[in-house]
Amino acid sequence: MRLQTRAVHALPQADPAWGATIPPVYLSASFAYVDPETLARVFQGREPGFIYSRIGNPTVALFEQAFTRIVEARGAVATSSGMAAITAVIFALAQAGDAVAVSSSLFGGTLSLFSRLVARCGIEVRLFDPLLPEQLESVLDDAVRFVFLEVIGNPRLDVPDIPLLANLAHAKGVPLVADCTLAPPGMFDPRRWGVDVAVHSLTKYITGNGTVVGGLVVDTGVFDWTAFPGSAVQEAVGKAGEAAFLYVLRREIVQDMGMSPSPIHALFHYLGLETLGLRVRQHCENAQALASFLARHPRVREVRYPGLEDDPSYPVASRLFEGGRYGGLLTFSLADREECFRLIRALRLPRTLANLGDAATLIIHPASTIYHERTEEERAGAGVHEGLLRVSVGIEESADLIEDFSRALEVLSKE
Ligand SMILES: *Cc1c(COP(=O)(O)O)cnc(C)c1O
């Protein structure tokens, strides 16, 4: 079966009690048992069951199960946000005294997490440029517990040679962790390219309608955790075997740090999964069409989109991504901030807000918003300048989007 078919049929029995076809929402903080012996057995893991919704909840479990089946992974753990998912991975794999190798082309929130909190916890953060494999090689030694990167760096929109970097990590016995938020199922299969742990912000494409915030950690099933040097996972191998990483994530990090999602949010995430394949296709087709239009427009200086043949990321992206899909995010440049603001005001369809992966097209001026507190050097590293605009292309009809951009660019010339 193919992805979109699996997505619709992931839970043939979502509700054995009454036959509901969609996961029932179990809005209950805790779960009662008729006798103390049963509760004790559930606590001791000798009988399946739920205890308390911070530790586990049936609706959340159904969403995790559905996702695991759709992408054919070893297992998945849902969290309250994408940032919580990344935090959970870091603390499951590393502790004070360890080091981690982290791409320098990252989402701003992730870069802050690594450079402030993680560094303060005594974990040494070693940055490398994901387009320069020799930089990763030079920071990898026995202290490093994992390699972290984004499949498509945001907002530089660069695509690293993931299988090559995975091989470097595996040669040192450590996993490759990839934030796959911008390259969701339907365009990129992390298992095929050596990604051991996939992280998603569910807030974006997977839920897909801009409703709720959420995150997910997926164990793709590639990595042999029994040989992993990190101490928390080592200790869990006796109890959980090859599921040791998932065990530490769920029973130590998410449970103890209180990162679990609401069951209502899990329902929204599940509903997004059913249409994910269709939406990803439409986002990518529209982004390709809009990128090609902008690249030909005389007012537009530079367009970055991995699906444009002259884009530096095109060769790698064409190898790693499926179905001629290159994602829904693009950036382009105008003369300066003033012109960017005028264009945003002239556009009718795109909303201007800080999110991506919504059904609607979104546009933002990164330098004055997401990057307003960053130094000039950090901005340059992320490819952000005063004339840059970032567009998250939605699932409208592409002809309407192109008409709107075309008209708004005309307005710029007239004013
Ligand atoms: C949004 C985003 C995150 C953070 O996810 P939240 O759900 O907002 O916590 C992490 N990585 C990437 C690439 C993102 O776009």
From TrEMBL:
Keywords from the named record: Pyridoxal phosphate, Transferase
InterPro entries to which the protein is assigned, alphabetical: Cys/Met-Metab_PyrdxlP-dep_enz, OAc-hSer/O-AcSer_sulfhydrylase, PyrdxlP-dep_Trfase, PyrdxlP-dep_Trfase_major, PyrdxlP-dep_Trfase_small
One GO MF term: cysteine synthase activity
Biological processes annotated in GO: cysteine biosynthetic process from serine; L-homocysteine biosynthetic process; transsulfuration
CDD domains: CGS_like (cd00614)
N6-(pyridoxal phosphate)lysine modification, residue list: K204
Cofactor: pyridoxal 5'-phosphate
Regions that span the bilayer: none
GO cellular component, one term: cytoplasm
Pfam families: Cys_Met_Meta_PP
Recorded family membership: Belongs to the trans-sulfuration enzymes family.
Protein's UniProt name: Cys/Met metabolism pyridoxal-phosphate-dependent protein
Native species: Winmispira thermophila (strain ATCC 700085 / DSM 6578 / Z-1203)
